[in-house]
Amino acid sequence: MRYFLVLIPLALLPLLLNDFWVSQVLTRALILGVIALSLSFLATYLGVVSFAQVTLAGVAGYAVAYFGPNTVGLGFPLPLYVSLPIALLLSMAAGALIGLVARRSRGIYAIMITLAIGVAFFYFTRQNYALFNGFTGFSGVIAPKMGEGNWGDPMPLYFLALGVSVICVVLVNGFVRSPLGLAVQAVRDAPGRLLALGIPTTYPIVAAFAFSGLIAGSGGILNVWFQERVSSFSVGIGPIIDVLIISVIGGLRHPTGAFVGAIVYVMLDIFAIDLIDRDRFNLLIGIVLLAIVMAAPNGLHQLAIDWVGKLRGRAEQPRTN
Amino acid sequence: MPLNTEQKTTTANALETQGIGKRFGGFWAVKDVSFSVKPGERRAILGPNGAGKTSLFNILTGDYVASSGAISLFGEDVTKQSIPKRIKRGLRRTYQHAYLFDGLSVCDTLFLAVAGVRGGWRQVLPVRSNDPRREEAERLADVCGLASFLDRMVLELSHGQRRQLEIGIALAEDPKVLLLDEPAAGLSPAERPLLSKLLLSLPADITVILIEHDMDIAFQTSESVTVLFNGQLMAEGTPEEVMADKDVHQIYVGGAHGH
Amino acid sequence: MTLFFVVTLNGLTLAALYFLAASGFSLIFGLMRTVNMAHGALLLFGGYVGWSVVDATGLWALGVMAGGLAAALAGALVQIGVLGRMQGDELRQTLASIAISIILADLMLWIWGGTTYQVRTPSWLTGGTRIEVLGIGYATVRLYLMVFALSVGVGLWLFIQKTRIGAVIRAGVDDQDMLRALGYPINRIFVLVFAMGGMLAGMAGVIAGSALSIAPGTDLQFLLSSLVVVIVGGMGSVGGAALGALLIGLAEQYGLAYAPTYAAVVTFVIMVFVLAVRPQGLLGRAEA
User: Fold this and answer.
1) Positions in chain B whose pLDDT score sits under 50
2) How many domains, in total, are found in chain A?
3) Which residues does chain A have within 8 Å of residue B111's beta carbon, measured at their own beta carbons?
4) How buried is residue B95: exposed, middle or buried, by Cβ count under 10 Å (0-12/13-18/19+)?
5) Residue A231 lies in a domain
6) Predicted ipTM?
7) Would residue A277 count as lying in a domain?
8) The model scores a pTM over 0.90
9) How far is A237 from chain C (nearest CA, A)?
10) What average pLDDT is seen over chain B?
11) From chain A, which residues contact C within 8 Å (Cβ)?
12) For chain A, the helix, strand and coil percentages under 3-state DSSP, each to the nearest 5
């Protein structure tokens, strides 16, 4: 199994690295990867590039903050086994709602609508104090206890993030082979033909967005435990663009490429300081994005596949389901 | 125009139309067409380009709302029914332009046609290889001659194979009346006999209505022929009778420009 | 009642700016199906250049022209250098224009810093004007802004409806391939339209800097408003941009004045409602 070729080193890596690497590089990349996976999933199988995935992650993150421990004295603490399902259900419901709004929009229209939704949510969190605590949001959102320490410590959180990543990848691979998953791909290819089979298109679209909400929400919960805070900045245009860039670097048509994109992005973020002025990071990331879009429109993952294919002397098939 | 209820008790026609038509602005694409097809019958619909054949199909399936007249399936009035309802009653069609799910495999395409999408949480579970619906999809692939291409992506199929898959999709879930819109269009001469064979091998209880330009295929596979011209019914009968019809000769051999 | 009139005038001011920004965005999309995510950056660029020119020369009109021309040039370069090379691949164009927008925003932050700028206006634009009918006074520059937006709207409409280039653009909106087959230099027309869109954005930037102010983030604000305005009004139509701008501008200001917590949501609700009823926008034509 080639999966173990990837997983075993990932499980052993923390033994070799210090906390900074485990936490700021690996864990962060896995969390960003999970959120970006939800975007790449929609792009690959529904053919829709959604800018609202950070919003979905934020919904789950805010829910965990609101229904769990925090230091702003807002919310309604619930036990973990209640608050976690609520958080995931809310992010799925939010996903379904976005799918419902954008169901008749494709291509660039879907991009514009999801972007508008994402930014509207950002402004809403800044202006609403009853649920989102406005501009400042929630701080002190610590991960649950585990033995001596808690799940938010570098090692436990890394393995938690790794576990969640694996589960999400397995879920995506299972979903796309389910009847509903097949219908989602059919919507991508020929929505009119699906209708002619007597299958409505709204249901698969809404389901795909809800499923992406589940994935993004899982990443969102991890992110809150990792940052120990969530605020309007967590769902602003910055993170929205970051997650998009990660998916593009990894290849929008390669769901698991999201993790490749995430590690590249995190490394750039950390080591850019050695290359250029820290304040010019956006310039660097913009140039990287432009270079990828112009030179490798299918992302680094596809680029690597192409190179491997060339080395083996034969062209590989781009995508199988 | 509801049909008489007495007709239900008699052996009803598989498909019957009474004076159906479709108007676009001031132009009647199909006008006052009445015809009936018996259960199990194989009927070819002929006519020059623009005669209204595909429009007729679109009215029958519900893609177009009829501007006039009534349609019944096995004695039941379906004129006002939606496309999915007519599909449930056993009406199936193929399209002139093979319009398929390029990113799915042959097996997955047929699976979707067989299983559809219903409610329930099971819909998100991966399909098992011993799922009866999957086995039915494999059987259909066999019927339409694609058994050895089950895992092939639709994008990679040849034009002829896409036609076969179209027919396979239409055969899913107990079809009773099959409307085939030019299944041989764009096929190479080598592929055409294969298609005829496939059409002849369809289960005998299925009623087939076929639009076809290839006279060989039409006459080989059909026992009766309806000729449309300028949206109206012009001739009807056995292939021999239609071949002998003067008007039919007129439109195919000469003088069609006069109209 | 005074509050209502002031809020209405504020809404119209915003609508006028939104229209200036969205009309160019919509024009570009209508002709070449390009969603230019760098449109907001072009607007801010025009605004900064206009500010610098006014600061150096004291000539406001020159600043507006310079801002418009600078953004037009930048827009043309974007089309020639990047977007034109991936014509037809809308997703790639969108992503590339996002990259350009990030790059431009950071370069502008580098050059002009993070401070808020207000463009100095000439004496005839400074101060307030008493509107006797409503019994209130209002900033003169904002009143002129509305007049300006109105005349740009009429001018744009006349240009598209009455001139030869306008006819070619209209034909291109309907059928680009036909235009290409007929031998029209479609790539040059694309660059021209991109420059025009940039020009409108750049002038809007200087005017936004005169009537309100400009700072990092202004680019995003106007990109998003342009998006919402054209989603609501309908893509590729000048009338749609005007109607959308009017709706969104007024709704935002009324929301801010009467239900501050939900101002952002009002805009969103309008958008969702329009999408549910008319996915192609109020004055847009249905996509094939």
Assistant:
1) 1-3, 5-9, 256-259
2) 1
3) 179, 182
4) buried
5) yes
6) 0.87
7) no
8) no
9) 9
10) 85
11) 49, 101-102, 104-105, 107-109, 111-113, 115-117, 119-120, 123-124, 126-129, 237, 241, 244, 248, 252, 279-280, 282-283, 285-287, 289-290, 293-294, 297
12) 75, 0, 25
